[in-house]
Write a structure and sequence with these properties.
- The protein has about 140 residues and is an all-beta fold.
- It is about 5% helix and about 65% strand.
- It contains 1 helix and 12 strands.
- Strand 2 and strand 3 (about 20) form a beta hairpin.
- The longest helix is centred in the middle third of the chain and has 4 residues, at about 85.
Length: about 140
């Protein structure tokens, strides 16, 4: 089984008293993703873009710019997991997740002062695994 999705969002949030964009609110977002399932396996891949947004540091609005990232995952669900009956598991799911596939760098937010801001960057490419058990 195969499915796909796409999302688009547009936002024009502003601080009317300062006539500036609302902090952290991207002007637009888009995403597209694909999901495949086959005999207990589930694989996903998704692509995301967030348009320009701003951060308020002191009295300055600093641009964060647009951001693009992509994630992927693969998981398998064991309906009759090894040792499942003995341990009381109904099912066990093991997954492997890959985030920021293309290792894109972007600014998450600023800290410090407006005259000397520090940039907080996103996480680089990373991989993690999980195991979930249902009792």
């Amino acid at each position: 089984m195969f499915s796909a999705y796409a999302n688009v969002g547009i936002l024009d949030a502003r601080l009317t008293s300062a006539n500036q964009p609302f902090p952290y609110a991207p002007h637009h977002t888009e995403s597209v993703g694909f999901i495949g399932r086959y005999h207990g396996f589930r694989g996903t891949i998704s692509f995301h873009e967030m348009g320009n947004s701003y951060y308020l540091l002191g009295s300055k609005f600093l641009p964060l710019g647009s951001r693009f990232y992509s994630n992927m995952s693969l998981r398998y669900t064991f309906e009759n997991a090894p040792l499942g009956e003995r341990l009381g598991f109904k099912k066990v799911t093991a997954s492997l997740n890959l985030n920021n596939l293309f290792d894109r760098r972007f600014i998450q937010y600023y800290s410090g002062s407006s005259s000397n801001p520090y940039q907080k960057l996103n996480l680089p490419f990373n991989v993690y695994a999980t195991v979930d058990a249902t009792f």
